[in-house]
Amino acid sequence: MLIGAHVSTSGGLHKAVERGTEIGCESIQIFNQSPRMWRPTKYGPSDFAAFREAMADSPIEAVVIHAVYLINCATTDGELRKKSLASLTHALRIGDGIGAAGVVLHPGAQKGEALGPSIKRAAKVISAALKDSESCPLLLEQTAGHKGLLGRDFDQTAELIELAGGGNRLGLCLDSCHLFVQGYDITDEAHLAGVLAEADEKVGLERLRCVHVNDAAAPLGSCRDRHANVGQGEMGKRGLAAFLSEPRFEGLPATLETPGPKKKGPDRKEVQAAKRLRKQGLKSRGSRPKVARGRGGR
């Protein structure tokens, strides 16, 4: 497992590698543009080359891009759909340029519309973005279960993948907090194994390309997407240790999106805390960490 954190690209793409290295990351996650604005970044070949060079000289094994939250692939509004497609395509093209392990996407929201047509609209936008980019995987993130958000269960995710073409570039991202607040008690090895068995049956674990590691600041089954620092929320140290030591997550980017001690995002202490919990979980399972599968970029 490649434990890391979401980091800023302020000052240039390559600066994200520097920030990740400073806090002890083995993988990093970035936004491809400001999460609060539609304006795309104007990265080019020189930016991609600088990023790849920085990666090659660092201990970081993988980078994941998170698509901006403004995107709603299921919208009925023509202008919003156009902006969503442009932003998602932009993210995938940057992923191509920097060799990202994938672009994580919240698929969209119904906004009062019927579920079936909403899934079809989202799948159409996803398919179009894939066709207009080269090879970067697109990873659909399990959402926190709030009514109206697409991807709130494995059945919806499976349907989205099928309707978007079902190609090898379509993947899955699991978030520990989202699963927990959806109602999946993943705080011990046996329950987590059961959830992954369901994911395998309905989506296929071969599509799992990354995980998000967040404790939950809301109760089990609350459907409230509120992240807590590692081991300090409803899942607790035991629950996060079980998640972090899951054998089927071996070699995957594992991104912290926690508030951090100073509410400025994960810091070195937070990353180290996750690594300690992973070791505790592995000890409980009676296993040892495996050697990483190799650099996660392409």
Mean pLDDT: 94
Estimate the global geometry from the Cα principal axes: globular
Question: Main beta sheet, described?
Answer: 8 strands, parallel, barrel
CATH architecture term: Alpha-Beta Barrel
Low-confidence segments, given as residue ranges, are 291-298
The CATH H-level superfamily is: Divalent-metal-dependent TIM barrel enzymes
Order of neighbouring strands in the sheet with most strands: 1-2-3-4-5-6-7-10
H-E order: EHEHEHEHEHEHHEEEHEH
Q: Structural class of the secondary structure composition?
A: alpha/beta
Keywords summarizing the entry:
298 residues, alpha/beta, TIM Barrel, eight-stranded parallel β-barrel, two-stranded antiparallel sheet, 10 strands, 40% helix, globular, disordered C terminus
Describe the structure.
With 298 residues, the protein is of the alpha/beta class. Helix content is 40%, strand content 14%. It has one domain: TIM Barrel (Alpha-Beta Barrel). It has helices at residues 13-22, 45-56, 78-98, 115-131, 154-163, 176-182, 189-202, 236-244, 268-285; strands spanning 2-6, 27-31, 62-66, 102-105, 138-141, 170-175, 208-213, 215-216, 227-228, 253-256. The strands form two sheets. An eight-stranded parallel β-barrel has the order 1-2-3-4-5-6-7-10, surrounded by five helices. A two-stranded antiparallel ribbon has the order 8-9. Strand 3 (62-66), helix 3 (78-98) and strand 4 form a beta-alpha-beta unit. The longest helix is centred in the first third of the chain and has 21 residues, at 78-98. It is globular. The model is unreliable at 291-298 (pLDDT under 50).
